[in-house]
Amino acid sequence: MNLLENSYHPKDALEVEDAGDEIHIYLPGDNTTLCLNETAAIVWRLCDGTRTGVEIVELLVEAYPQAEPELRSQVLEALSDFMTRGLVEGYNRTVYQGQGKQKIILFYNSMWDAPLDFPEAEIPEGYTITTDQRLLPQAVAVVFHLPSLPLTTRLRKRPDQLWVAWSMECETNYPPLLRREGSLKFFDLTMTYHLDADVSVPYVNSGFQTELRKPVQAKIPGKRVNAFISSRVDASSRLAYLRELMRHLEVDSYGKMLNNKSIAADKGRQSKLETLGQYQFSLAFENAIARDYVTEKFFDPLLAGSVPVYMGAPNIDDFAPCDHCFINVADFPDARALASYLLAVSSDEHAYKRYLAWRSQPFKPSFTRLLEQQREHPFVRLCKKVEERLKSSSVSPWR
């Protein structure tokens, strides 16, 4: 095996002290400290998982052209010593599956550290999706979940590698560093809730086609308005609005915020939907107000047979299955006016039923297009988008 063909990165949990010209590495096995000389120290710093031994040699030759004859052997000696002492992990950048070479899409970090859930059998032939960060150098595309990406992450972007910004959160809620102008300039593709994203992933799924047609359960007398707000994230000022609304209208609040109700034998999402369905109206207040940011806050009441009272995206109509299926907070001058309207509609059977009539009507074309798009899993669409980019460039996908 040619050590220079591999990529390397330090093993976890090593105690390393960088002293400038030298690097000291504590070797717990024999309770000694290894002192790397200047050349070995440079090689160590370049073992970040993004370069092969050959590329490390090339970088050193570029910096020290007069030492070119010796550099190859010095890098090889350093890498061999690192491997022998168990200080680094080395791996080849060519991956095979069966007899065919695979194009790798690496999810550098998952959404809130949850396992990736996708239909592996539907991933296009020739593509592999992985979370193994050791495959970073050979990945044709690297996906970063921005809201949970550690701010200490420091990576070298290869010019022939696509970086993908992935998020279902509103940009308003990103860490400050990622909200800065130009912070996303290193990303080539986006996979977000935005309708114009390269891979659009709104909070809908193709199953809504039938789920939104289910019969509405009978409302329980006296259960007029509910709220489920548990997150302190509040860029929309929804909690202040809810407090004011509760001064003029009785609201059963099941979330952690402004809580005054609880669900017995709570079984999670199913219990929530059953509870929503008991009420005439459900407050659907987003944690931020931004175009296209329409979450389950809006869709859950619709699925449950309740009427959403929506605060959020200014283009909410683009996501509504039909006309007259929700009440928009933005249409009212203040909470008091909204409360008066809800009280009036709740006591007028004909007026209330008009908000449920849409369930037997055809979906709006815009909503039908959303559902059709989601028939194909986002990761499948991502593979196709990456393939499209690769074909439109002169860069070979093989590392």
Quick take:
By secondary structure, this protein is α/β, with parallel strands linked by helices. It contains twelve helices and 18 strands.
Question: In words, what does this structure look like?
Answer:
This protein is α/β, with parallel strands linked by helices. It contains 12 helices and 18 strands. It has 3 domains: 3-90, Outer Surface Protein A, domain 3 (Alpha-Beta Complex), CATH 3.90.930; 96-202 and 377-392; 208-367, Rossmann fold. The strands form 5 sheets. It has a 6-stranded parallel sheet with strand order 9-8-10-11-12-13. Strand 14 (225-227), helix 6 (238-248) and strand 15 (252-253) form a beta-alpha-beta unit. The longest helix is centred in the N-terminal third of the chain and has 17 residues, at 68-84. The two termini are 17 Å apart.
Give me some keywords for this one.
single chain, 399 residues, alpha/beta, Outer Surface Protein A, domain 3, Rossmann fold, 3 domains, six-stranded parallel β-sheet, five-stranded parallel β-sheet, 18 strands, 29% helix, disordered C terminus
In percent terms, what proportion of residues is strand?
Answer: 15-25%
N/C terminus separation: 17 Å
What is the overall shape?
Answer: elongated
Number of helices: 12
According to CATH, the fold-level topology of the largest domain is Rossmann fold
pLDDT average, as an integer? 90
User: What would you call the structural class?
Assistant: alpha/beta
Tell me the count of domains: 3
Q: Which series of helices and strands comes N to C? A: EEEEHHHEEEEEEEHEEHEHEHEHEEHHHH
Structural Rg? 28 Å
Oligomeric form: single chain
**Main beta sheet, described?**
6 strands, parallel
| Uncertain spans | 395-399
Determine the CATH superfamily of the largest domain: Glycosyl transferase family 10, C-terminal domain
Widest sheet: strand order? Answer: 9-8-10-11-12-13
Q: What is the helix fraction of residues, given as a range?
A: 25-40%
CATH architecture annotation of the largest domain: 3-Layer(aba) Sandwich
